[in-house]
Design goal:
The protein contains 21 helices and no strands. It is mainly α.
Length: about 500
Amino acid sequence: MGIVQSQSIKNIFITFFGFGIGAINALFLYTNFLEKTHYGIVTTILSGANIMMPLMAFGVQNTLIRFFSHYKTEKEKEEFLSFMLVMPLALILPIGFGFYFFYDSISYTWIIKNPTLKPFFWLIPVVGLFMAYFEIFYAWVKVHMKSVVGNFISEVFVRLIIMILLLSVHFEWITKDMCIYCIALAYLAQLIGMKVYAISIKKPVLRFVIPENIKDVVYYSFFIIVSGGVAVMLIDFDKVMIARYLNVSQNALYSVAIFISTVIAVPSRAMTQIVAPITAKLMVENKHDELNDLYKKSAINLQIIGGFIMMLIFLNIKELYHLIPKDYSGGIWVVYMIGLSKFYDVMLGNNNSIIVNTKHYRTVLLFGIFTVVLMIVLNMIFIPLYGIEGSAFATLLTVLIYNTIKFYFVVKKMNLYPFTIKTLYSLGILIVCFALFYFWDFPFHYIINIILKSILITVFYVFANYKLQISEEVNQVIDNLLKRFKLLK
């Protein structure tokens, strides 16, 4: 796993750094410099844009990765890349016209409940367009095995811009309304940065030729629209539904809880950037054993790292909520439920990368449609009853059902299995860790409590995983660190 390990480690550091900036934005700057209504509006716009992104991208971000290895000559690859840049226009243009002419009808359901959203609702498809072409250019560099800089642009660059904008609100350089518009422009800056880098890696040679396998390309892209839309909906659809049934300010509380729990998925996001194209390549070359080995390694490594982050969050969550304004409290159960859904996701390793590259991908289309309907129904039931906790519960149920279906599909159709006996050992360590430290609190200031408790959790968790040799890669990283500090010969 040379290139995987190297770029994954870099991506993990970059992603964590980006999440550090995001944490400052989400937990401190948004909550202190923007009132809950404006924070909720930003959350609703970005969530809506994320939902529209797979449709506006026409699934090209995954199609490019899936089919790029099929083309052998440089001319064929250039023609394919050119076609991928134009293909999304087939959906972008009708969506744009439809949104323009039926704007009032589309926005009515949300604006009638939250009139403060009215001046900003049109930003949803615009930001969705920026996100779509960002992902396309990001896939452009991924197929050339270059993911680190793109990850920096995605995780760090845009968050730094938003941090500057929030500070500008604090110093009254811009208004809160203007900040929302500028945040939309931050995603345009992200797109431009990604485009410039992609061109530096591989300058496009525009040859507008329809690929010979156009039927397969289009079929696969439609599949990605649905499957990608499902994946995004599992992350963002709940926020859009909250704005439909509750005051938009509730999205601010929900977003704080979501951000905290989403940190669990950071390692998975980082590793996926490089694992996805390698998975596609192994499947094209029909290297089943190597693919199965990659599947197992990605699953156990992500389980260890994601489990460690989950323990730090779950066991410090009450103290963590002392760090943010009191009127943002009340989302602890959201953290638990969304956190468990994220952990189940990372446990399955590169499961999604395998599914989107399998020849049986059309079958999964039915799972996606079922999941969308299920999520809509569950949110319609639980949000009116339990508010944001109901939305989190609906998301947890949907993720558990959807991921279990996908896992079963990969096992039965592909004869690939991510789990070993060490998976159970790792889960055992997590259970023991939770039981040991959940009721353990120091009688000190909450920040000191978090630091001391986190140190104890880290020592126990790392020692247990190292001694039981749960992962060769994790042990190798620990050995290298011990050697560097001359604690191991």
